[in-house]
């Protein structure tokens, strides 16, 4: 009998005959599943699916296992351990409405003709056909997430007076995003994020990554940025979004930093959309309960791979400034083929499915088969992740390193940081054929935008999301000059602060 089970589990033990529903308790498990009777359904479905699986239970608080893997086996050779900052959970006022609208998985759902995954005898053709089922069903909605690729990854030939603005981590906070955009002067304050209006003209805006996790409006934020990016391009400007470590985590199926309210947004905007288009919700089974709507959206080759993720970048150079989520070194440039090389690797990985585990019909015979397939899916994705996107806490990759940004508001603790950034900027200048004098990064929350390492390292993550520390949004502004740039910080109070007033020198922030 096919396993009609939406597993909230990340684990299973065949020896003990137990399905594990990972969560903070029955209520939390039910919320993540989108139904109140999650545990009872899991137990009943497990019993009917396999004689070796006899019961279900909820892991007590603090015992939940993140990711799709059987402990103690790691999810993939490259793991993402621990938490890189506190993640208080917050729910927007719309969360309860979303919960009411989420359509639960039903064990009585029948197969839909749209989900037919019968074999043709050609393994590769069958895999491609199965993978295309969800993307085809989501194709109409995907257009809202169309992010134009940047005009170029390296734009050094700017006319004097060209305006460049940048801001840091958003983490699913729609209010913070709008404030950033209004402060930057690139969005009409009278418009809203569902229908934003670009007012930046030829301004180039760079958002340094981490739109995802910790908040309730991640998809809403992406739709707004994509809309503004398309408008900016038409106006002769640009809006570029970089990959952050939380984008890497989500692509790998690691959702330990996601808010319940954010997961509900994915259910409403993506999951129920697919349910309706396909006439069934059995497509969810292939993700083994690991946030099917979120994983389907962000896995490489997934629903948003071509339109959204393929238009982002690891790093870019605009004028005399290089932008990146966490930091760059000379070794990154040498090992990854420069800015263009690392972006090419990341985009190629994002657009390609790295497994043959797609099973939209949910045609599994046992619970173990569901879990094993999801494990293979996760390992194939993480195992093929390019180094420029990989790593974990403390890793030296462009989306994870903290050598230039930690501790917050103070000079970096790494005694080699000055030499590292000087060497990197020198190498970049040689590759670009033009001076690159500063690096702008997010990733590590500061109390306010500041510069360290003799003005070379600009740290723009101000922890503005309510899921981080609710810091006051600020925007870095650079006006390109013929010989030198004018750098300022724009605040929510309408101030324009000169760069020299935000330099960190010998443990003093001026």
Quote the average pLDDT. 81
Radius of gyration: 23 Å
Count of DSSP strands: 17
Poorly predicted runs of 5 or more residues: 1-111
Strand order of the largest sheet: 4-8-9-10-12-11
How would you explain this protein's 3D organization?
By secondary structure, the protein is of the alpha/beta class. It has 13 helices and 17 strands. The strands form four sheets. Strands 4-8-9-10-12-11 form a six-stranded mixed β-sheet. Strand 11 (450-452) and strand 12 (457-459) form a beta hairpin. Helix 3 (95-101) packs parallel to helix 8 (260-278), helix 8 (260-278) crosses helix 9 (292-298) and helix 10 (330-336) crosses helix 11. Residues 1-111 have low confidence and may be disordered.
Short description:
The protein is an alpha/beta fold and 510 residues long.
Question: How are the secondary structure elements laid out?
Answer:
Blueprint: E1 11-13, E2 18-21, H1 26-33, H2 38-49, E3 55-58, H3 95-101, H4 123-142, E4 154-155, E5 163-167, H5 174-184, E6 204-207, H6 218-234, E7 238-241, H7 245-251, H8 260-278, H9 292-298, E8 315-318, E9 321-324, H10 330-336, H11 338-351, H12 367-383, H13 417-432, E10 438-441, E11 450-452, E12 457-459, E13 474-479, E14 486-491, E15 496-498, E16 504-505, E17 508-509
Parallel strand pairs: 2-3, 4-8, 5-6, 6-7, 9-10, 10-12
Antiparallel strand pairs: 1-2, 5-13, 8-9, 11-12, 13-14, 14-15, 16-17
């Amino acid at each position: 009998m096919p396993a009609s089970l939406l597993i909230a589990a990340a684990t299973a033990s065949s020896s003990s005959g137990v399905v594990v529903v990972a969560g903070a308790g029955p209520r939390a498990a039910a919320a993540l599943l989108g139904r109140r009777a999650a545990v009872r359904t899991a137990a009943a479905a497990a019993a009917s699916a396999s004689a070796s699986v006899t019961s279900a239970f909820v892991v007590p608080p603090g015992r939940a296992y993140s990711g799709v893997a059987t402990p103690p086996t790691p999810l993939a050779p490259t793991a993402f351990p621990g938490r890189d900052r506190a993640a208080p959970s917050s729910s927007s006022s719309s969360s309860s409405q979303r919960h009411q609208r989420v359509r639960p998985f039903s064990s009585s759902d029948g197969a839909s003709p749209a989900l037919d995954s019968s074999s043709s005898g050609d393994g590769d053709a069958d895999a491609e056909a199965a993978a295309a089922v969800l993307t085809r069903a989501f194709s109409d909605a995907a257009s809202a997430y169309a992010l134009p690729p940047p005009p170029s990854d390296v734009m050094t030939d700017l006319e004097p007076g060209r305006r460049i603005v940048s801001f840091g981590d958003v983490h699913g906070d729609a209010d913070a995003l709008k404030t950033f955009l209004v402060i930057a002067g690139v969005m009409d304050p009278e418009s809203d994020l569902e229908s934003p209006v670009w007012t930046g003209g030829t301004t180039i805006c760079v958002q340094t990554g981490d739109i995802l996790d910790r908040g309730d409006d991640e998809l809403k934020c992406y739709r707004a940025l994509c809309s503004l990016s398309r408008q900016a391009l038409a106006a002769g400007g640009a809006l570029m979004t970089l990959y952050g470590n939380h984008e890497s985590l989500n692509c790998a199926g690691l959702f330990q930093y996601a808010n319940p309210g954010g997961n509900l947004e994915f259910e409403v905007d993506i999951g129920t959309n697919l349910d309706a288009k396909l006439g069934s919700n059995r497509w969810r089974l292939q993700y083994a309960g690991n946030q099917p709507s979120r994983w389907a959206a962000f896995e490489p080759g997934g629903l948003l791979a071509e339109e959204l993720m393929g238009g982002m970048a690891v790093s870019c150079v605009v004028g005399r400034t290089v932008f990146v989520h966490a930091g760059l070194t000379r070794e990154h440039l040498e090992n990854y083929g420069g800015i263009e090389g690392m972006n090419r690797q990341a985009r190629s990985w994002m657009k390609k499915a790295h497994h043959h585990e797609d099973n939209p019909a949910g045609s599994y015979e046992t619970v173990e088969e569901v879990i094993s397939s999801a494990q293979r899916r996760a390992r194939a994705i993480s195992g093929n992740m390019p180094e420029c996107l990989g790593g974990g806490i403390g890793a030296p990759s462009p989306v994870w390193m903290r050598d230039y940004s930690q501790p917050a508001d103070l000079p970096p603790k790494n005694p080699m940081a000055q030499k590292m950034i000087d060497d990197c900027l020198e190498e970049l200048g040689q590759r670009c054929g033009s001076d690159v004098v500063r690096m702008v990064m997010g990733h590590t929350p500061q109390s306010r935008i500041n510069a360290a390492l003799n003005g070379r390292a600009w740290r723009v993550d101000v922890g503005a999301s309510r899921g981080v520390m609710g810091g006051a949004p600020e925007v870095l502004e650079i006006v390109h000059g013929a010989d030198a740039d004018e750098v300022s910080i724009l605040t929510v109070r309408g101030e324009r602060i000169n760069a020299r007033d935000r330099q960190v020198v010998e443990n003093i922030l001026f």
